[in-house]
């Protein structure tokens, strides 16, 4: 006998007026299971590595000021370079492709080929030369793998700013109170002779004879570097939205930096600073940030006038006569009569003699510590500016690869800086700072060996940290928000 109950798969006559919806089978549990949070990065994967490395750079620089550590000075000079090379292998993380990387690798390849040049000095000096060059730009490779956010990058900039402002402040005290805050003079400077050492001194308004302010360095005039970055980084904090305390701190850094810069009498640093300020003004103009442009111009311009009066009151006629030379003649003639002749010699003498490079270990720190200058086939060479060093390391191609890396870095920073979208926080501000900072570094290659020094390492470290922070910010956004 059939059951009276209808079959469950059959429906009533109204089925033709209903919309058929196909449903997926219900899961066993209806409670959503959250995705597991990514594991926090270890020490060698977080931005704390950058902070620790910057602290190491500061310690190595400060160690040179103590006479008790003079016997092991070479250790502190190479410690930062060796640590940068070690981090190149120790730091793990996603390999981000900065636009400058291919050109830097090509430059390192050219330098490595010069290892086999017949003019190469000792193998140890050649290895040191190659190691210095790689260690300087290595932060671009290892720091870009770290998990850095905007807050961490701001902390890195603040750390650099405070150190440079401290150096500039100490430089002012060294001139204002002669003999009280004076560090030991560099042995390399003393070896140049009494006449050269005396040329680095000047007479203040009180009649005392002092060295040009050293700051936290052992070189007369070295405080000008801290003054330069105190003004440049202070300008970024002045325009920041991080609170009135940061704005006041930035304004203080600008004032202190300008006073120290005038007392240091390093004209090339002043010209480079003018170029950097013009670069920041250009970016603010292109992005339409007129209020910030007026703020920056008013504060820097006002402090420039007040600081010059203060510096002349402390430094006397020596400061006034030194800076008057910038306006007494064409600035290009001033440069040509000083550092410009080294640039002329690079193209007129060095490149015709060494079109493919001069071999390794023949100049700079590598030759001073590890070279053998008794070999007449490989005599020591002198490189006063970075362009001469590039010519020695790679000839004509050496003058192409590394500058292209700098131009690629400049262009990337400019692209970030000119964006008008403020939803990305203050990345436009840091991009403006990096654009001006990078342009200043390029300008300093015409003054000394910037990318064979600790300053060059800080350059690539700061650019890598910003690149990583910007990339991590974009990676965290949903696709439709990018």
Layout of helices and strands:
Blueprint: H1 48-63, H2 73-90, H3 101-113, H4 123-137, H5 139-142, H6 150-176, H7 187-190, H8 194-199, E1 201-203, E2 209-211, H9 223-239, H10 244-264, H11 267-286, H12 290-315, H13 317-328, H14 331-353, H15 364-370, H16 386-417, H17 427-444, H18 454-476
Antiparallel strand pairs: 1-2
Helix pairs in contact: 1-2, 1-6, 2-4, 3-4, 3-16, 4-15, 6-9, 6-10, 6-18, 9-10, 9-11, 9-12, 9-17, 10-12, 11-12, 11-17, 14-16, 16-17, 17-18
Can you put this structure into words, describing what you see?
Helices cover 63% and strands 1% of the residues. It contains 18 helices and 2 strands. The N terminus and C terminus are likely disordered. Helix 9 packs antiparallel against helix 17. It has one domain. It has 482 residues and is mainly alpha-helical. Strands 1-2 form a two-stranded antiparallel sheet. A hairpin with a 5-residue loop joins strand 1 and strand 2. The relative contact order is 0.13. It starts with 47 loop residues before the first helix and ends in a 6-residue tail after the last helix. It is globular and about 55 Å long. Keywords: Membrane, Transmembrane, Transmembrane helix. It comes from Corallococcus interemptor. This is O-antigen ligase domain-containing protein.
